[in-house]
């Protein structure tokens, strides 16, 4: 494929970056709230994993197979019904103008745009669609022949250095590499994304947590507060 030297690429983390919430954690809380899972046990484990994520100590495979194992209890139709309710009750109110405007800025510049998130595709695909982003790189659940989730992860997680792996593979599938773009942007809130932030031309610490805030300051990276009224 011919190098498009005038095109830029804009990459976005999802949770606490384009959303003022963590969609993965909120999905678990939603399942507890509607009585789909044992609220006490699931809620305890969900909170433990979320705390590990915030601290940067999460084992992504352990967490994803916990989350996907929960999904595997239900038929795909039941899951889709649950997710439609989740979108209406939890996600749609969290789709805020500041994030939509930021995406539109890059769309108006004809940038190649993708969301790259550690959260699994089942949870995030409808969210990416609601945000108007076509390309999504997410943790891939293994599906059986009927399209039901088996509870297993397919491939490597899309977290930490795994985001770089998935990005490179996705671009290679289009005959491209990151260096083909004049400017490459990555917006993220978390120190977990430093591996990818470190290889783009324009790393932007977006709604950064304390660890990323400190790293961004030390490296001269700009910061962006999209949700100051919602923090």
How would you describe the overall organization of this protein?
Strand 5 (184-188), helix 8 and strand 6 (202-206) form a beta-alpha-beta unit. Helix 1 (23-33) packs across helix 4. The longest helix has 17 residues, at 39-55. The protein is an alpha/beta fold and 231 residues long. It has helices spanning 23-33, 39-55, 60-71, 76-91, 97-108, 121-131, 161-172, 194-197, 210-219, and strands at residues 9-12, 112-120, 135-143, 149-154, 184-188, 202-206, 223-224.
Short overview:
The protein is of the alpha/beta class and 231 residues long. 45% of the residues lie in helices and 17% in strands.
Summarize the helices and strands and which ones pair or pack:
Layout: E1 9-12, H1 23-33, H2 39-55, H3 60-71, H4 76-91, H5 97-108, E2 112-120, H6 121-131, E3 135-143, E4 149-154, H7 161-172, E5 184-188, H8 194-197, E6 202-206, H9 210-219, E7 223-224
Parallel strand pairs: 1-2, 1-5, 2-3, 5-6, 6-7
Antiparallel strand pairs: 3-4
């Amino acid at each position: 494929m011919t190098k498009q030297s005038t095109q830029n690429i804009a990459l976005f983390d999802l949770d606490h970056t384009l959303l003022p919430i963590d969609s993965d954690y909120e999905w678990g809380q939603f399942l507890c709230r509607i009585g789909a899972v044992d609220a006490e046990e699931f809620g305890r484990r969900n909170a433990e994993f979320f705390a590990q994520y915030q601290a940067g100590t999460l084992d992504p495979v352990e967490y994803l197979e916990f989350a996907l194992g929960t999904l595997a209890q239900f038929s795909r139709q039941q899951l889709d019904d649950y997710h439609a309710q989740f979108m209406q009750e939890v996600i749609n109110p969290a789709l805020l103008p500041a994030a939509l405007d930021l995406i539109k800025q890059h769309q108006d510049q004809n940038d190649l745009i993708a969301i790259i998130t550690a959260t699994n595709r089942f949870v995030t695909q409808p969210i990416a669609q609601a945000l108007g982003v076509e390309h999504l790189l997410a943790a891939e659940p293994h599906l059986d022949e009927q399209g039901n989730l088996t509870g297993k992860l397919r491939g490597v997680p899309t977290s930490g250095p795994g985001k770089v792996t998935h990005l490179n593979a996705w671009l290679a599938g289009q005959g491209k590499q990151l260096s083909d773009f004049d400017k490459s942007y990555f917006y993220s809130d978390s120190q977990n994304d430093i591996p990818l932030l470190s290889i783009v031309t324009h790393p932007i610490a977006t709604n950064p947590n304390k660890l990323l805030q400190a790293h961004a300051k030390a490296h001269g990276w700009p910061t962006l507060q999209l949700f100051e009224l919602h923090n």
